[in-house]
Design brief:
Layout (H helix, E strand, L loop, with lengths): L2 E6 L2 E6 L4 H7 L23 E4 L6 E2 L10 E3 L3 H17 L14 H8 L16 E2 L5 E4 L8 H10 L4 E4 L6 E4 L16 H5 L5 E3 L11 H12 L6
Parallel strand pairs: 1-5
Antiparallel strand pairs: 1-2, 3-4, 3-5, 6-7, 7-10, 8-9
Length: about 240
């Protein structure tokens, strides 16, 4: 095992060669905000909230997909980064239809937590008010596209943990949205196993248990991490 030494916020850190900046920071107890990151599945760097400054580079780099390098100097909490992160969170609120007071995930939402962390008490951008659908055709679950932040967690857990490949991404730009099978109603999906992993993975109130009322949706992230770890260690092979 090759060990790399770097500094994060002036703190000396040792990390394995294959680790990312985010992993190294988390192991050292250094907080970096994330939204699309989910323990146990592949990182894609979609939300850009984990951007960090690296000495010698003019570009901000996503910590979740940037591997550590010997001698690397990283800053995770500069004024520049805080400004960008708040702007990203504001853009997510303005681009969708996020009304926390009537959301099933109110009080249990990672986007809401990020807004509080960034000190966001209002949105300075113009709201888009997109016309998006709610699909409750599934017997047990529903998806409200108004609250989707395109983190692709549902896609990745369905692909990498359940292996059903039910979810995918369609469209471009502001027309991007998650779909089931070939853009069919979720309830008609032939590949969905109704396992609920996508429900546990969702950071907002976009994917929910049917019958949930305001503030009732709580996620069990540990289940997903447990399943991925067990699979990697081949603990269930007989």
């Amino acid at each position: 095992m090759v060990v790399k030494t770097l500094t994060i916020n002036e703190q000396f850190i040792s990390a394995r060669e294959e680790e990312t900046i985010l992993q190294a920071a988390q192991e050292a107890g250094i907080h970096i905000p994330t939204l699309c990151h989910l323990q146990g599945v592949t990182d894609v760097g979609a939300c850009r909230l984990c951007l960090v400054e690296i000495t010698g580079s003019n570009k901000l780099q996503p910590a979740c997909v940037t591997q550590v390098v010997e001698g690397m100097e990283v800053q995770t909490n500069s004024d520049r980064l805080q400004k960008y992160r708040r702007m990203i969170v504001e853009m997510l609120f303005a681009e969708g239809n996020h009304i926390c007071s009537v959301c099933v995930a109110n009080g249990n939402c990672e986007l809401q937590d990020l807004a509080i962390e960034m000190g966001m008490d209002h949105v300075q951008l113009d709201y888009h008010f997109p016309n998006r659908k709610v699909d409750v055709s599934h017997d047990r679950f529903g998806i409200d596209h108004n609250r989707c932040v395109l983190c692709t967690r549902c896609i990745r857990v369905c692909d990498e943990i359940e292996g059903a490949h039910t979810w995918d991404m369609a469209g471009r730009g502001t027309n991007s949205h998650v779909i089931t099978d070939l853009n069919q109603p979720w309830g008609t999906s032939q590949s969905c196993t109704s396992c609920g992993k996508c429900v546990n993975a969702c950071p907002t109130g976009a994917i929910f248990d049917k019958g949930s009322s305001v503030g009732e949706m709580k996620r069990d992230r540990a289940k997903l991490d447990f399943l991925m770890t067990a699979r990697e260690k081949k603990q269930w092979l007989f």
